[in-house]
Structures are given as C-alpha cells and as structure tokens.
Amino acid sequence: MEAVTMQIAQLLNSTLSPDGAVVGSSTEALDRLSSHPDFSFSLIDLSIRGENQGLRIAAATYLKNFARRNLDGEQSSSKIGVQFRNRLVQALLQAEPVVLKVLVESFRVVITNEFVKENSWPELVPELQSVIQHSNLSSEGSNSQWNTVNALTVLQAIIRPFQYFLNPSDPKESVPPQLELIAKEILVPILATSRHMVSKILSVPIGAETEVERSLLIVCKCIYLAVRSYMPSPLVPMLPSFCLDLFGIMDSLSFKILNSENALLRLKTAKRIFFIFSSLVTRHRKHIDKLMPNIINCAYKVVTQSPNISKLDFLSERIISLAFDVISRVLETGQGWRIVSPHFSVLLDSAIFPALSMNQKDINEWEEDPDEYIRKNLPSDLDEISGWKEDLFTARKSAINLLGVISISKGPPMTASSNGSATSMKRKKGDRNRGKLQRRCIGELLVLPYLSKFPVPTGVSEDDTSKILTDYYGVLMAYGGLQDFLGEQNPTLTAALIKSRVLPLYSSPSCSPYLIATANWVLGELVSCLPEEMNADVYSSLLKAFVIPDFGDISCYPVRVSAAGAVAELLENDYLPPEWLPLLQAVVNRTDCDDDNESSVGFQLLSTVVEAGGENVAIHIPSIVSAFVGTISKHIPPIPEPWPQVVDRGFSALAVMAKTLENCMLEEVEDNELCEKWGTSRATTARAYSILLQQAWLPSAQQVGDNSTILPHHSCLDDASTLLLTVMRSVSESSAVAELKVTELLIVWSEMIAEWNAWEEVEDLSMFKCIRELVNLQRRCDIKYFFVGKMPSPPAPPVPQRSIIEGVGAFVSEAMSQYPSAIWRACTCVHAVLNVPRFSFETEGVKQSLVIAFTGASFSQFKKVRSKPSALWKPLLLAISSCYMCYPDMVEKVLEKEEHGFMVWGTALGSISKNSFEPALSGESEIKLAVITLVKVIERQLEARGGLNSQLTQDCFISLMELAIRFKEFQREQNEDDDPEDDDNDEDEETDDDDDDDEESEDDEHEETEEEFLDRYAKEAAALEDGLLVEEGDADVEDQELELGALNEVDEDRAVFLLIERCNQTLIIGNFLPSELVTGFLNAYPECSPFFR
C-alpha cells in the first residue's frame, strides 16, 4: 500500500502543475489507479499525513469526487467497507480545518447510504458520543487526542440528511429512529452543558474563546438541522433552557465591532439562532409558546438596528433581515399577534420605516451595480405577503414583508355607533356579518395614516440625499408592500392613493430618478388593485418613464427597467393600450442601444407585449420583425460559444411572435381573406427568421480539414426551433426550400439536437414540434439529405454523414432513454418519424435502424416502470407497436434480448387495451394502432404455434375483442350529431353553476391547516414517485392524435373479421372467452355471428 500511496502522492502533486498537459495526464493516471483496492485508503492517509497542505487538500478533493462517483447511488453499500468508513471517520477527527471542510463532503455520501438509507452503522452514534465526551473542550485539563470542533463537524454531517422529511409521501411520518438516537445520546448531553459554554463565552471579551464559540456555532447548526422538519422527543424538555442560553448570546450581539474573525463568529451564531427560532415558531410552536415573548424581544432588539444599515456589512444586514422574518412568523400565530400588536406603532417608526428609507449605500449601489440595486430594492419576488416566506435576504425586503403582514392583520372588533357606548358591541342574531365588516385592518388604522404624514417632494430644491427624499423613498417602498391589504379594500382607496401620492412625481419637473424608479415599482405591484379607469393614466406615466433619458451623470437605467417591469404587469393584468404601435416603437428603440442589459430588458418586455396584445400586435409584426432581427444579429458571437443574455431574450421574444402569428392563423382558418393575410405575414417573418438562423448556425457549421463539423452552440435551441418551425410551415413548394436555405438549416439543427444533453435545464417542446412538422414538410417537398446524409469531400472516406432523420432519431431515442419527463413527447414523434415519411427501397436500412433504436429505448424505459401500471405504459408500448407494424421480426429480436421480452411487451399491450386500465386508450389513432398491432401479434403467434394455445395469445385475443367493442362505440359517438341548441343550454347552465360556485367560494373561504398542507404535499410526492404527474407540455401531447401515416389505410374492421374467421374453430372449441364479452362483441360486429356458432 505504501508504494501505491507514494505514486498517488506524486500524481496529485502533478495535478497542481500550471502545465495543462501535465494535469491531464496525471488525472488520467489517477483514474486508472482508482480501481486499486487500496486507492481510497491511500487518499485518506494523504489527506491527513501529506507532506504539504496543497497535497492534503488535493487528496481530500479527489476522495470527495471519488466517493460521489463510486459510492453515491443504488446498491452502493456493498462498495463501502467497514474499514473504509471507520478510517474516514478517524481522518475527519484529525484533519486540519481547511482539509476537514473538503473531507466532510466524502463523509456525507457514506452517511447517506450507510446510516440514513441502510441504517447499518449501529456503532457510529455511541462511538461519536464517546469521542465528543472525551474531546479537548469537554474534558478540560487533560490532553485529549480528539478535537471538539472536528467531532461536532462529524455530528453535523450525520444530522444533515434529516433536515428534510425522508418520506414526504407520508403526511404523518414519525421521527426517524436514527435521529431519535442522536438526540438522546449526543444532543441532549451537549445541550446540558450549553449553559457552561455560553457562560464561558460571555465572561470574556469577544474572541477570547474562539474555539468554544466555534463549537457553539456548530451546535446551533446541529439543532437547526434536527428541528427543521422533525422534533426528536428527547429534545423537547431541553428546548426552554437551551433557548434561554441563546437569548444570552443574542443580548451580547453588537453590530459595532466589524471586520474581525472574532466578531464574525458571533454574527454567524446569531444568524443560526434566528434560523432555529424560525423553525420552532413555524413547525413546533406548541413546544415554545411560553418563550414567545422572549423570542419577540430578542428579534425586536435586532431590528431596531435598521437605521444603521448603510454602515453594516452583508452578514449584519442578513441578521436584521432574519429578525424581521422571525417577527413576521410570530405574527402569523394568535399568541404572537397579541404580544406584538400593542407595539405596532413603535415597530413601524423605529425599525420598519428606517429599513425602507433610502441610504447612502443605495446611491452607491445604483451607480456601481444597477442590476444588483434593482434585484435588492425593486424586488419582483414579493408576489405574496406571508409570515412564512424564506430567503428574503435583505433587511428592506423583510421589512416590506413584515409591513404587509401587519397591514392585513385585523384590529379589535368595532361597530358603527352614534354614541360609541359599550352596548354597541352587543348585536342581534342577524347582525353577525355586519359586525365582521367593522373589524378594520391595521393597514387602515395605522399604516396609511403613518405614511400620510410624509409630504410629496416637489422636486425643485431638494438634493438626492435630503431627508424629505429619503423618507419619501421609504413611503413608496411601504406602498409597494401593501398589495395584499389594498387588494382587500375598495379600489377607490388605491386610486386615491395613487393619484395623490404617486402620479404627481411623474409631472414634477426635476423629480429624483431614485423616486421615479421606486414609483414605477409601486405601480407594478399595485396594478391588480387599481380600478380600470385609472389604467390609462398609469400606463401613460410608465411609458414616459420607459423612454426617459439619463439625468446628466446619473444613469436612469433602473428607472427604465422598473418602468418596463411595471408596463409588463399592467399588460398581464389585462390592460390593452388604445394604440400598440407607440409602445412597440419604444421597445424597438430601447432594444437597439449599446447597453446589452438594457436591450435584454427591452426584449423581455417585447415578449410580454406580444403575448398580451395577441392579434392587435400581430398585425404590426411584419413591419418590425426585421428591426429586432438586426439588433439580435449584432450580439451573436462569431465563434461557437454561449450566447449572451440579450441574444437569449431576443430569440425568446421572436419565438413568442412566431407563436402569436400561428395562433392568429388558426383562429381565422375559416376566413379565406384573413387567412391569406396572416399567411403573408408568416412568410415575411419566416424570411427574417431564416436570415437570423443562417447567421447564427451556418457560419459555425463549417467544414474543417478533417471533415468534422464545428456545430454552433446549443444556446436558445428550443426558441430557435420555434423560428425554424415557422420557416418550415411557410414552405409550400420546393423553390422556397432553396430560397430560405431550409435544407442547410435542417442539417445543422438535426446535428445539434442529436447531441442535445440539457434535458433538465432547458425547455424542449418546440424541438419535438419541429420533428412532427419536419416529416410533413418532407412529404410536401422531398428534402435533400433527409434519408441519406451528405457525402464528404475527398480525401475523406466515402461514408455519408448523418442524415437529417438519423439525427432526429438519435434525439428521440435519447429523450426516451435519459429523460422520463420527455417520454410522451418522444413517443409521439416515434409514430410521426416511422409512419409519415415515404421511405424508398434504398432507404429501408435507415428505417430499420430507427426501428431498432426506438424499440430498444422504449423497452429499456418500460422495464424501469413495469413493476406498477402507470401513465407511462401507454406511450412506451404504443411506440413499440408502431415499430412492430414496420418490422415485426426485427422488433421481436430486439425484445428477446431480454428474457421473455416479447411476452412482457405483448402482455402489457393487452393490459393497456383493457377497459379497466387507467389512463385508457382514448383517441381514435391510439385505439386503431392497438387493434391492428394485437391482430398482428395474434397472427404471428398463430403462425408460430399453430393455434390459440398460449396464454399470451389468449390474453391478447380477449384484449383485442374488448378494444374492438370500444372502437365501435367510439366511432358511433363520433358520428352522432349533437343538438347545438342543447349545447347552448348546457353552456348557460354551466355558467350559472360557475357563478353560484364563485359566490359560495367567496363566502366560504377556507385557510389550509398544517395537517392539510402536509397531506396535500404527501399526495403530490406519492404521485411523483409513481410517475403519475404529467408535465404541462405532455398534457397537450396526450390529447393529440398519433401520426399513423400509411397505417391509416389499414381497415381494422376487416383485419378483426379475417382473424375471427381464421380462428373460428378454435374459438368454439377453446372456450376461453367470457360469455358476456362474446355477447358484447357480436352486438358490435353482428357479421361475425356465424363464427361463434
């Protein structure tokens, strides 16, 4: 082992070389050595005893990657030996801090498999308890070999997997026994000594007991992880005393001592303490009810530091943010509201409003990093005000959220009374609802009156740092947080507030851009609360802000960005401008500027404008599309590399344009004149899209010396596919194929999708739509290189490159194999690719290759889900059915590579054909394909076995008869003419019912309890595990008819008749058909009666 260790040490040192070739060869040598049985042990030894820190870190890092690659996943426990895991723990207890941080990542992989999943490490907890008990801080005065910080770090790694529910599909999941054991044997003894640790820390100046403070921080992390989801029973009696210790730490917190390691530890501990309080209030309030006043007092002391935010670092501000969040969570409880509500005024004046007001840090950030300023101060993620929100991160966002929570809370019951006497609280039985209406919100009683005392700036003499401006900045921020409160009020209240307190800023001759940007954000947040008659004034003000120039040296980029966001909110709230062209022209001008970020924002707004405007905007698309294409072209990099954001958003906006035009054409399909107009528009946009795609794809897809192809980067491939889809749909004759360079674009596109591997990160719906359109285009225009690829130029070997359909086939096969969420879409394409194109005798080899690939991929994925019937059975089995109808011999060979593979598929196909299967075969094409496939299966079984004597054949025959009956019923239903008057009456009745339901829902609002919340998420988790949840894109695919091509010409009734005729003697003698099935079949097919006598 020593020789191996030395060799590994040399290679690891080589990986630190600045020479890339040396690093590469050393990495390859390490990979070859990784199969040696002592490899992992050598890495552990080197991480502790390496000759220098660089080597030790390199060994720990390689061990981390080795563990993730070889030990993470199913059946990994057999790879983790007892000796390895014990040696790893020993190393963790001895490692220096910088190595420990890396080494613990390897340990997490082992813990997840050995301790959490398998529960096969019974000695771990007692041995770790002993180590902690005898570590250096626990056994003072003795020279312990164990470091307390290291031991606690190991404990933290062990608890980490339990921070989330292990079985989310169980709404009443009990605490895992491993966590109960950890709490009992380790956490409880630690908490028993926490008072001593805290006293030791508080008795000396900050930093004098650094190791003790670091230990307390890790203990707090462990407790937080332990109670984030579960509540181990041994911890319950310890919580009160432990929280009192934490209050002591919080009382010692100071934001004046910054920029030192010692102060940083205290701040990190305070941050973790607030995490603990949040979890206790949210998940385990019954255990800490008596501590609620202390928690509130602790948080209040911190939030009152908000006036000093401009002087604080990020971590200090994060702690203030968490303190606001704790108060928000407390306010969601009845007891917490009763404690806090008497202090609302003080809280608003001394903590919330100072956090909202503008400070010097805001001005600096506006100038130095405007995008960060927008993210932090003009947030678009405050969609719902709630005490349970997490990760707001900045004190301002958390203060806005808390203000919103306070505003929507109800004040004491009040009734309208002329004398105001106490007797007015008594009410008659019929006055119950009227009494409820008199319970006014705190927003009306306190918040709005408080904000109204700050005057609107005139914008004449104040500079940007004057108190009147900084205060009014806070007022606007506050208004933005009142969305939920104002949404419950009469819209006239919001209208009056906007008219008197916000819109005047836009007419001020020299109003501060800081206020205008914030006002834009406020209008965007409150559009849903405005009466319709105000929308025009708001839109006019926002459009004015969207085109505002810079104020001298002050950039107005945040003003324009916030205006764009607010305009988008207004449009999404169903406001339709009287004229769309001025807005579109403003967007054109804004996208065509030197600032990539600003262009990007313009394209983002363009997408919203086109989606909201629909046909009103579509009529302008042909006249503006070239301008947008030209702007995007300027930003496309000349070499294959990831595209910048402006190009991404530009392609996205063009894709929305393409979809909008297509929708307009579909809506006007019966009006020839309008349909022709939209067809002309599509042709215009298709030419522009083709020019853009040529620039984006063709220069990169160039042939180099070795005849290999340099493909363009896969950026925006789904949106680009939408543009390509428009180009293909605009082609009606072969001349257009050449004019738009369709063939060249398709060659590159098919190569790119064949290499596609970003299944989890990027949408792919348009790629699949392109495939279905592509096969139809090939039938119309006979695309060159569709079946057989281009032959490379000499001196390359005369082997054709991958054809277009082969690239498509590779993409579809990979989708079925690698990405379960794309199975529906991929299987739909299987039918189109095999059945629609006209394969010639010369191209049969290509079709056979596709059938083999599709069958293998479909059956491989089916094996993964066959243990339990699910929604994925149907697309996978029907995809194999299309393959089977092409080449049954070939498909049987592929299936039989697995033991009894053909029988497995045939039996499953019979199962989904039965009436009892869910989801049942529904569309006409699905039923037809299953019928003719079952006929083919039975016929081939008859030829092979000479009769209906196999279980597979009999099962398939029963399923065929059931399906044939259902097909007849389906055809009969399709042929029946519905009475249109009855339909209208039904619609009216449904509308009336809907109205009634709406009224009832308003009266019977129901707030979800924690039990209902857990139950709902448990059901969703279970459905996800069973593969029953269908993605949004697949829901549309489910309703589409399959592309059967030539199979549509097959007469399924005659096929069934001939099969029954062939088997009539066997059917009479076999007696395996249920009598009720025969009766139903003969009712549907009376012509088959002679064969059953």
Count of individual helical segments: 53
Helix content: 55-70%
In one word, what is the shape?
Answer: globular
What is the β-strand count?
0
**Share of residues in strands:** under 5%
Our Rg estimate from Cα atoms comes to 35 Å
Distance between the terminal alpha carbons, to the nearest Å? 82 Å
Largest sheet: none
CATH architecture of one domain: Alpha Horseshoe
Can you tell me the residue ranges where pLDDT is under 50 for at least 5 consecutive residues? 74-78, 414-437, 703-707, 979-983, 985-1005, 1028-1033
Structural class: mainly alpha
- Kindly identify the CATH topology of one domain: Leucine-rich Repeat Variant
Mean pLDDT: 85
Per CATH, the class of one domain reads Mainly Alpha
Summarize the structure.
One of its GO terms (molecular function) is nuclear export signal receptor activity. The protein has 1093 residues and is mainly α.
